[in-house]
Amino acid sequence: MGNPEAGGSLGKKARLKRYDLIVIGTGSGLEVASAGLDRGLRVAVVEQGAFGGTCLNRGCIPSKMLIHCADVMETVQQAHRFGIKATVESVDWRFIVDRVAREIDDEAAAIEASGRNIPNATIFKGEARFVGHKALKVDGEQIEAERVVIAAGTRPAVPPIPGLAGVPYLTSDEALRLTEQPRRLAILGGGFIAAELAHFFGTLGTQVTII
Predict the structure, then answer these.
(1) Is residue 57 within 8 Å of residue 106, measured between CB atoms?
(2) Structural domain contains residue 211
(3) CA-wise closest residue to 97 among 71, 72, 67
(4) Range of 90's domain?
(5) Are 19 and 122 in contact (CB under 8 A)?
(6) Domain containing 29 — which CATH number?
């Protein structure tokens, strides 16, 4: 790890650390950080969660891994169309979900570990908050840079549906890591994420209703 210059203090407990570039988020933000490092910049990377961003942790990669299991099930169910007799004895739901979660978590941890060994790069784990002009506070430390890139990714948007607050609902984030298969599932919305989840759950035996 590089040792950034320490300037004057902002507050009694935190020292101000200066960088050439601060990147908030480790999805697409890592591409920006990498480009800065290639140009010899001192880079600070801020991440409050798992490394890898939305796509790796709660987006396209885990969803496609789960969808593939549904595709395998569908292939077996349709095998008779090709003159092949095959049946499905059971579905090990916990194994399916745990396998995906384990591979995703291992990959995220590997990305973070790799980043901590890069010269001129410093990783800050925590939520970033602007406290001044191009100055941020992360986990009690003050950092600043001439360039600050916000690449914090996306989060599920929960619509203001009357009565929803009293229901134990799921977002797509939780749905990707359900440890028990639900017997019935209602999905609000018909976008591509809804369609993917409906395919996964429905093909493996959950009764799905799309609203």
Answers:
(1) no
(2) no
(3) 67
(4) 6-204
(5) yes
(6) 3.50.50.60
Tokens 């099930």 found at? 73
Give the closest residue to 127 by CA, choosing from 52, 24, 197, 10: 24
pLDDT band, very low/low/confident/very high, at 154 (cuts 50, 70, 90): confident
- Given the structure tokens 């961003």, which residue do they identify? 53
Give the SS3 label for residue 148. Answer: strand
pLDDT band at residue 6 under the 50/70/90 scheme = very low
**210 occurs within a structural domain:** no
Tens of pLDDT, residue by residue over 83-137, are 999 999 999 999 999 999 999 999 999 999 999 999 999 999 999 999 999 999 9
Within a domain: 118? yes
Residues 58/153, Cβ–Cβ less than 8 Å? no
- Name the DSSP class of 51: T
Q: Write the Ramachandran bin of 111: left for phi over 0, alpha for psi from -120 to 50, otherwise beta.
A: alpha
Q: What is the pLDDT of residues 21-56, one digit of tens each?
A: 999 999 999 999 999 999 999 999 999 999 999 999
Segment 15-22 shows an average pLDDT of: 91
**Single-letter amino acid code for the residue at 65:** M
- 117-134 burial string, b = 16+ CB within 10 Å, else e? ebebbbbbeeebeeeeee
Q: Could you tell me if residue 96 is inside a domain?
A: yes
d(CA 162, CA 179): 28
- How far apart are alpha carbons 134 and 24 in whole angstroms? 12
Q: How many domains does the chain have?
A: 1
